[in-house]
Amino acid sequence: MASYDPDEFAGFEVEKGADFAATPDTFQRLWTPHRLVYVEDGQQPDADACPFCLAPGKSDEDALIVARGQHAYVLLNLFPYNSGHLLVCPYRHIASYDEASPEEVAEIGSLTQTAMAVLTATSSCEGFNIGMNQGQIAGAGIAGHLHQHIVPRWPLDSNFFPIIARTKAMPKLLGEVRDEISSAWPA
């Protein structure tokens, strides 16, 4: 692991919520201007290189797919926030939820419910963050292909590592997590 270099964080500022105009809150803000590159540079793949279009053509193991439905499928996030971070994607290359057919919406919902049950059983998580970032401006890493995040959460799973060391500690390898979840997925 790289050593801590205080100069690397010299541009960071922390503001107290009480310093803002309007109704004060208890939040502090950590400004991370180095992440602006993700917003400004786009970081979007070409349409023919969409990872969510390419994944279903690969083996489940290679694509980290844990379950396939008729209109959508579930795979592990290659850059997870937590172990077991899943994505539910329609097979069809659509950018936003309002473009999804009723069948796709229903299956995305059903796969999300099943994923929650499987993650609870396999990892004993106690909660979830579930959401969709719609469009590049909203922070979608792959803005051209709709996908829903399912992030399992545990008490005290937040720590200083991602902020100070720019490292996310993942207790299991992606392949192990995929095998565990897909084995527990109902037939």
UniProtKB/TrEMBL annotation:
PANTHER family: AP-4-A PHOSPHORYLASE (PTHR42997:SF1), HIT FAMILY HYDROLASE (PTHR42997). It holds the Pfam family HIT. PROSITE patterns: HIT_2. Keywords: Nucleotide-binding, Nucleotidyltransferase, Transferase. InterPro entries: AP-4-A_phosphorylase (IPR052908), FHIT (IPR039383), HIT-like (IPR011146), HIT-like_sf (IPR036265). This is ATP adenylyltransferase. GO terms for molecular function: nucleotide binding; nucleotidyltransferase activity. Residues 51-160 form the HIT domain. It comes from Homoserinimonas aerilata. The lineage of its organism: Bacteria, Bacillati, Actinomycetota, Actinomycetes, Micrococcales.
